[in-house]
Amino acid sequence: MTDHPAASPSLDVLRRRAVGLWAALPADITRLAESFAAAGHELALVGGPVRDAFLGRSSADLDFATSAHPDQIEALLRGWTRSTWDMGREFGTIGGRRGDVVVEITTYRADEYDGATRKPVVAFGDSLEGDLARRDFTVNAMAVRLPSLEFVDPYGGLEDLAGGLLRTPIDPHVSFGDDPLRMMRAARFASQLRFDIEPATFAAMAAMSERIAIVSAERVRDELTKLLLGGDVRAGLAALVDSGLAERVLPELPALRLEVDEHHHHKDVYDHTLTVVEQAIDLETGPDGPVPGPDLILRLAALLHDIGKPPTRRLEPGGGVSFHHHEIVGAKMTARRLKELRFDKDTVKAVQHLVSLHLRFHGYADARWSDSAVRRYVVDAGDQLERLHRLTRADVTTRNRRKADRLSFAYDDLEHRIAELREQEEVDAIRPDLDGTRIMEILGLAPGRAVGEAYRHMLELRMEHGPLDPERAEAELKAWWAARQSS
């Protein structure tokens, strides 16, 4: 259960916000509602748009519920616009567009679930109140009847909204049994809305966490992504871990709760990770900066950067603890987990790369690198360099002020040296001074393995010495070739 303080505007303030936004609904929506009423059907704005109006946010997506059945919805929409589409007639949803106004209208539902899958046995309902009962949380179970603007709140959603509370409209065991993904949504809303999860609702999450197994990896991924892009990511992640959901969808995270030895030879890796995530978020930039927030790749890398520690933990003589090569092990674990969650290949590759490099900077503060080492750092980071800067800085969570300052100053120095090298040479796109074609011309070679070896040798020289003039580059190549031939 989350324990961050929730904002609690008064009910009167919430009502004033909402009424203003509802009154400002496009005239086209009023005309559509009037056509439904004239045909003897109810139409109500439902879900997120109603909640967001109370929070003072306008919503581009307008979702409606109605007593009309799909064929009737379609006929009425065609009288409103020629642009309609069938979004799932069997589920009762028809969409339409009139100018910039896009609507989705769904017949009241009264579904039942078989308990084995998330797919409901679709049944149309006969009342708005019954439809709202099947929503995930009370704050999403409010509606506004149109065109009268009558507010409908049978489950106390407005009071929960004012109190910053997430609660299911019906018994949470029934609600989560019907659709286990709602448990992931609770953690997501804890991050997005900064709301607390009501104790009975959280207890049901903990009791039913194993039910998440019937949810597809893609759905879990989508909810995790939204959680990570929210405003209170620590609260959302804590809800996943404390409820037991993380054990089923992201077991590497609760595994970070390593037992801290009595002499505190290593820090709490789980708490450290949550702090690194927060600090990485603080280092994201505005839209014109190099890492515009919210940045999913940076946040995933911060979350997963130390997951290689539990399997590499070793007790050393004298009572110390080591995690040798945890970045290498962690990078492999990261790729495996993200693939299982069906993240796209580019995201998997970028996050894995950052995890593998997050320790590279260690040691710079003790022994200033050569220009060659700086070049390698830039080349190895590639297009993830700006994210690596932020991940490395975020990874400093020591309470020792002198140590933290020393690491910060050292990284400032590294970034300054990267900037200096960029002024002198194209350090972001280092290539050998001789390309493959020129190597073949000089050595009289046809394409083959030897050309690749020569190319790698020239790249090593470029890394070590910086740009070489053409004469020296050719001389170095011939000397290497002669030595190779003689051996």
UniProtKB/TrEMBL annotation:
A Pfam family it matches: HD
InterPro entries in alphabetical order: HD/PDEase_dom, HD_domain, HDIG_dom, NT_sf, PolA_pol_head_dom, PolyA_RNA-bd, tRNA_adenylyltransferase, tRNA_CCA-adding_enzyme
Sorted UniProt keywords: ATP-binding, Magnesium, Metal-binding, Nucleotide-binding, Nucleotidyltransferase, RNA repair, RNA-binding, Transferase, tRNA processing
HD domain ranges (all copies): 269-388
Cofactor: Mg(2+)
tRNA processing listed as a keyword: yes
Name of this protein: A-adding tRNA nucleotidyltransferase
Source species of the chain: Demequina sediminis
